[in-house]
Amino acid sequence: MPAGNAEHVVARVEAEPVNKAENRVLYQKRIKIFPKRAKGFFRRLKWLIMIATLAVYYVTPWLRWDRGPNAPDQAILIDIPARRFYFFFIEIWPQEVYYLTGLLILAAFALFVATALFGRVWCGYACPQTVWTDLFIAVERAVEGDRAARIRLDKAAWSVRKIARRTLKHAIWLVIAVLTGGAWVFYFADAPSLLGDLASLRAPAIAYIAIAVLAATTYVLGGLMREQVCTYMCPWPRIQAAMVDSDSMVVTYRDYRGEPRAPHRKRDSWDGRGDCVDCNACVVVCPMGIDIRDGQQLECINCALCIDACNDIMDRVGRPRGLIAYDTLANVERRAEGKSAKLRLLRARPLMYLGLMAVVVMLMAFGLTTRSNLDLNVLRDRNPLFVTLSDGSVRNGYTIKIINKEYAERSFTLNVEGLAGARIDVVGRDTQGVPMLAVKPDRLASFRVFISAPSSALKSRSTPIVFKLNDAAGDGEVSYDAVFLGPDR
Amino acid sequence: MGQAEIDDHSGTETTGHEWDGIKELNNPLPRWWLWTFYISIVWAIGYWIVMPAWPLISGYTTGVIGYSSRATVVERIEEARAAQSKFVQGIAAASLEEIRKDPELLDFALAGGRSAFSVNCSQCHGRGAAGSPGYANLNDDAWLWGGSLDAISRTIQYGIRSGHDETRFGDMPAFVTDETLTRAQAGDVTDYVLSLSGTAGDAGAVARGAEVFAENCVDCHQPGGTGNPELGAPNIADSIWLYGGERATVLESVAKGRAGNMPAWTGRLAPATIKQLAVYVHSLGGGQ
After folding, report:
1. Which of A32, A136, A157, B268 is packed most tightly, with the most Cβ within 10 A?
2. CB contact, 8 Å: A390 with chain B?
3. How confident is the model at residue A5 (pLDDT cuts 50, 70, 90)?
């Protein structure tokens, strides 16, 4: 056999996985990572998810939702001055913030399910840190070139060309950062009018401050800190280990197939050696600066770019794809023993998470469907507890608060049950009979009310009474249990 | 100073400090921490120059921008006063009845009245204006000197037995102490008075008391004991007692007289404040 053709099909790249556990000491300056461009299924998937998530982020505040004449028409609006949160057909008052809690619990459990089934898919595809870092790296690559060019530029002495490239890169980053912060503030005010105010410098100072702060964090986290955020600042890499087990899909190196690794020349036999040609393609594409062949690591965000890189190499050396692949750790072991792989999605852990999600969804659905658009609160006067009047009758004072959650003015009649001969006086009204209380659209109104009762109606020191509030138009009623106090007897 | 000692186990320099065989390693401070520290120092020096900082023997360094939290408070108070002036002037110009009818002025008067009441009146009348024996409950519908807005306002302005020229003045004599009535007569009239509000006593005593009442009390307290606000003579036929409705307390009132005081507030409080107080007290539930 002629041994003349000794060239490697795939040349080894000298790349150091800078964040490899054994390379890293406790006190060390950050070593820059220059991720090479990857091509393949997962890279395309990541572009699509980036476009989708960015589109959701930028477009959402511009969605409109008609709520009638007395309410904002923005689909999602956090109106802090008016203390309202609008989410399509849902309007949340401050005292109903448990709906928001429910949403956050749902989001958390969705994250748990995804993690239990597919590992760190959140980190790898959807996390804002990943999306914006990916975007910033794409800009960097477009301006300064791919990995080799970037390393050369980084090492080069300062020159006009280097200054120009660097200035352009940071300028584009800053524009992206400002746009990121700029989109954020639209969630908190009517987007079209705020855009006009921002452009004509008439927007409130807090809007500019919020944009500046978010632009700064985007620029620093996405452009300068990158993988350090995931490794050192984010708690999730530490927490997620509690959701992942040996049946979760994770990005794995199939060491039973790859080892022993060695460079491979054309026409060399594949007998007695692994499929890994030790080309470091997986290392150079890694944005986290690790080597997936070292096994599961806290730094790995499961972005799957090493899968794309390795598949490309396997195609070129003519070996089957999937030396690095999404697989469960249990399956890697089974395959190593020559058994067939099994995918166990219906495990206790994800099912439990799904069950808890279902409970929260049902509770929220119940809460939303039975949510009243009318609310009554009654606060008893505590000083004085009661007042004896000159004819011997007893009077109690109350402050009643009526919440009208409809976008129309409503009138209510107020009655008291459980107290014989009770008389209702609304402070500031000279009306006789059943008082009529008007509440403006989408507002809370407060009334001072005196209830008096003849002494003979009181059997004990404390008498339970019920306030009944009825919509004058017959559209709903609400009651409130209170007490009426009198002298000891 | 010799060569720094190197720790065998970690290969790190030590500081040379040793306690019971434990040596302190000389690890560097985290860079971000160090820079934060340096920036804080620079910031502090700038702060000394710009803001009030160092105490001197008499006074302090005022800083180049001349900031003073006290001046800021004064400014804020002035701003608040200016914002209120529209309402204060409105209240000064309006009659009490006009204030009560105008929702804006009424809101301001009630809020201002509540705060003025807490500062000036609650010591005797209580936070909730429920009073205590000898100090009138302002929530109920019994008024010694009248419960109209004007009557309340006048009481607040000039007080009761306050020494002011315009003061309200009524005199409940000490019938037994002054020897106008005997102890037995005082007991009889007490039984009669209690019978007016439905407390049954010895029929003979009540009948004798009625005669005593007709001779001595009716001028002020009126036939039937309904009282006279012109003289501050309370209604003694209702369920409300300023000093308490037990027989011993009523007897004490007859025997020793009563003469509570309320200070005159005109001159101490601004006229607009007195108006706000009058509207507030009137709103507590018993206003006529």
Report:
1. A136
2. yes
3. very low
Half-sphere exposure of B218 (CA within 13 A, CB side): 10
Write out pLDDT tens, residues A13-27: 888 888 887 777 766
**Predicted confidence (pLDDT) per residue in A377-397, tens digit:** 999 998 889 999 988 899 999
ipTM over cut 0.90: no
What is the C-alpha to C-alpha distance for residues A312 and A36, in angstroms, rounded to an integer? Answer: 13
pTM of the shown model: 0.74
> In the predicted model, what is the mean pLDDT of chain A?
89
Of B28, B235, B285, nearest to A397 by CB-CB distance is B285
Q: What is the DSSP string of A16-73?
A: --TT-GGG--SS-PPPP--PPP--SHHHHHHHHHHHHHHHHHHHGGG-B----TTS--
Mutate to test the interface with B, among A389, A425, A450 (most CBs of B within 10 A): A389
pLDDT at A2 over 50: no
C-alpha–C-alpha distance, residues B155 and A223, integer Å? 75
Cα–Cα distance, A325 to A306 (Å, whole number): 9
Asked if A28 is an interface residue toward chain B (Cβ–Cβ < 8 A), one would say no
Touching A: B residues 10-29, CB under 8 Å: 27-28
- B253/A347 Cα distance (integer angstroms): 87
Return the bridge partners of A402, or none: A376, A445
CATH number where A429 lies: 2.60.40.10
- Sorted by where each starts, the structural domains of chain B and their CATH numbers stand as 14-60 (no CATH), 71-165+263-283 (1.10.760.10), 183-256 (1.10.760.10)
Is residue A33 within 8 A of residue A283, CB to CB? The reply is no
How many domains does chain A fold into?
2
- Give residue-wise pLDDT tens across range A26-74: 667 788 899 999 999 999 999 999 999 999 999 999 999 988 877 889 9
**Residue B194 exposed, middle or buried by CB count within 10 Å (0-12, 13-18, 19+):** buried
Q: Is A479 in contact with A447 (CB distance < 8 Å)?
A: no
- Higher-confidence residue: A11 or A363? A363
- Taking Cα atoms as reference points, which of A343, A279, A332 lies closest to residue A306? A279
**CB A395 to CB B126 under 8 A?**
no
Would you tell me how many other CB atoms lie within 10 Å of the CB of residue A21? Answer: 13
Q: Hey, is B126 helix, strand or coil? A: coil
